[in-house]
């Protein structure tokens, strides 16, 4: 085989490998995660929580169908946005996830870091009901389905770091906050679960 032919074959092999890699890995150019209260995804990315699977490299990628609560990811898979590769986020781990300490009824600023801006419908924040089952994966029946904070964007693109001042609900004990960032020009939204304690 001539040197030119060997190089040509090598080039074809590299191209085929690149195509295989690019089509077998989900798009991870990413989107966003909550930093305050810190989300499960970000705790994994920081290394605060171990054995998280692929979410540790792409905490911004919990993207699923929009329309929550009428549509969106299925019950029990809300924290992973219904993505099997991020299923570790749905595991309650017996209450071992780190929880952000909050004060019921207090003013609080919710924060996101966005790795890619999208035209945005809104950001909504939901919280678990008092007495919810802390040992089961998060479901709609465990949540108050009326958000306690809604921040409309009307199609605008938010900055890389966004802050949403609001008032925390009245709760006691351990809870979860589900933050949903709904994109205006796609069929998707981003879902972030944060463990909190009042």
Automatic annotation (TrEMBL):
Can you say where in the cell this protein is located? Secreted
Extract the Gene3D superfamilies matched here.
chitin-binding protein cbp21
* Organism placement in taxonomy: Bacteria, Bacillati, Actinomycetota, Actinomycetes, Propionibacteriales
Q: Which segments constitute the Chitin-binding type-4 domain?
A: 31-196
Please tell me where this protein is predominantly located: secreted
Superkingdom of source: Bacteria
Know the name of this protein? Chitin-binding protein
Q: Which PANTHER family match?
A: CHITIN-BINDING TYPE-4 DOMAIN-CONTAINING PROTEIN, GLCNAC-BINDING PROTEIN A
Q: Which SUPFAM superfamilies does the UniProt entry name for this protein?
A: E set domains
Cellular compartments per GO CC: extracellular region
Keyword annotations = Secreted, Signal
């Amino acid at each position: 085989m001539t040197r030119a032919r060997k190089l040509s074959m090598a080039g074809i092999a590299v191209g085929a490998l690149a195509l295989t890699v690019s089509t077998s890995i989900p798009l991870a150019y990413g989107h966003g995660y909550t930093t305050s209260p810190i989300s499960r995804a970000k705790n994994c990315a920081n290394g605060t929580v171990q054995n998280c699977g692929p979410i540790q490299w792409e905490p911004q990628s919990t993207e699923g169908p929009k329309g929550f609560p009428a549509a969106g990811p299925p019950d029990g898979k809300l924290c992973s946005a219904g993505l099997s590769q991020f299923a570790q986020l749905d595991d309650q781990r017996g209450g071992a996830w780190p929880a952000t300490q909050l004060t019921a009824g207090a003013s609080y600023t919710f924060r996101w870091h966005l790795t890619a801006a999208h035209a945005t419908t809104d950001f909504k924040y939901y919280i678990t009901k008092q007495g919810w089952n802390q040992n089961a994966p998060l479901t709609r029946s465990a949540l108050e389905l009326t958000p306690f904070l809604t921040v409309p964007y009307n199609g605008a693109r938010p900055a890389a770091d966004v802050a949403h001042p609001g008032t925390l609900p009245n709760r006691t004990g351990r809870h979860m906050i589900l933050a949903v960032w709904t994109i205006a020009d796609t069929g998707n939204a981003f879902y972030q679960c944060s463990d909190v304690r009042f």
